[in-house]
Write a structure and sequence with these properties.
It is built from nine helices and four strands, in the order H-H-E-H-E-E-H-E-H-H-H-H-H. By secondary structure, it is an alpha+beta fold. This is Protein-export membrane protein SecF.
């Protein structure tokens, strides 16, 4: 910690602000869970050429997804798209009179239900932060260390959302759940660090931070490795389960951000608080 820790403290905060700027400029891709629309899945021959289907459905997202039981064509259309016209194109493409002749499933989410999902998801995130802040302050009862934990959690979520915008990961009920999980992971390492720094008396300040860092980084790397394995397995073995891939990707981005925010930002604030702020009182 002999490096200019104040500079290191600011770097992850700047990254979080840049992430928010990216989201404001680039936006977030929305799944039909939160925007409404129709998702059609069709079990198709393995050699299906999607190029023609994509040309015929320019307003829909068309992709192919391999699974253990075959090849699925997945078509996602927004609320503004005429579903009947999509069905007609599908029947013509697969040369059938009725969609019941295909291994076919259809999921529709209306505007009222999708807006309800979005509203409830945002409420869940807001309540999670409020209750997390209350618990953190109740544990430490000092504004600076408590504020550092809350700042790290908020910045961690900002970096994760920025990563979603950058890598085109859709916001959905599943990825909102991943963001809530991320709050728990972030607060876990930050509380462990803050507890060791404030409440332990053995060793110097730098030794206590280094000891917490050894434990915390081991915990984080274990989870990062697990999420990386999950992402790779889903992507290359069961790509039909893309929801799991999105959850793993959000957690990976957030956990990597958490490494910086805990061991650069939070650790730097605590070092300043213990070595300069308290002594100046």
């Amino acid at each position: 910690m002999n490096i200019n820790y104040k500079v290191l403290t600011i770097i992850p905060i700047i990254l979080a602000l840049l992430s928010l700027t990216l989201v404001s400029v680039n936006g977030l891709k929305e799944s039909i869970d939160v925007s409404g629309g129709t998702e059609i899945s069709i079990l198709a021959p393995a050699n299906t050429d999607l190029s023609v289907l994509k040309e015929q459905l320019p307003d829909s997202e068309v992709k192919i997804s391999e699974s253990s039981i075959g090849t699925f064509v997945v078509i996602k259309s927004g609320l503004e798209t005429d579903v009947d016209s999509v069905r007609a194109v599908v029947k013509e493409f697969f040369n059938v009179e009725d969609l019941s002749e295909l291994s076919y499933t259809e999921k529709q989410i209306g505007s009222v239900l999708s807006s309800k999902f979005w509203e409830e998801g945002m409420k869940a995130v807001g309540f999670a932060f409020i209750f997390m802040a209350i618990v953190v302050y109740a544990i430490f009862r000092t504004p600076v260390p408590s504020g550092a934990v809350i700042l790290a959690a908020a910045s961690d979520m900002a970096i994760a959302v920025g990563g979603m915008s950058l890598f085109n990961i859709p916001i959905s009920t599943a990825t909102i759940a991943a963001l809530l999980m991320l709050v728990g992971y972030s607060v876990d390492t930050d509380i462990m660090l803050t507890t060791r720094v404030l409440k332990r008396r053995s060793g110097t300040l730098d030794e206590r931070i280094a000891g917490a860092m050894k434990t915390g980084i081991t915990m984080s790397l274990t989870t990062i490795f697990a999420m990386a394995v999950l992402y790779l397995v889903v992507t290359f073995v069961v790509p039909a389960a893309d929801v799991l891939a999105n959850i793993a990707a959000v957690l990976l981005i957030g956990l990597i951000g958490d490494l910086m925010l805990t061991w650069m930002t939070n650790a730097g604030i605590l070092k300043y608080y213990m070595s300069e702020y308290k002594k100046g009182k």
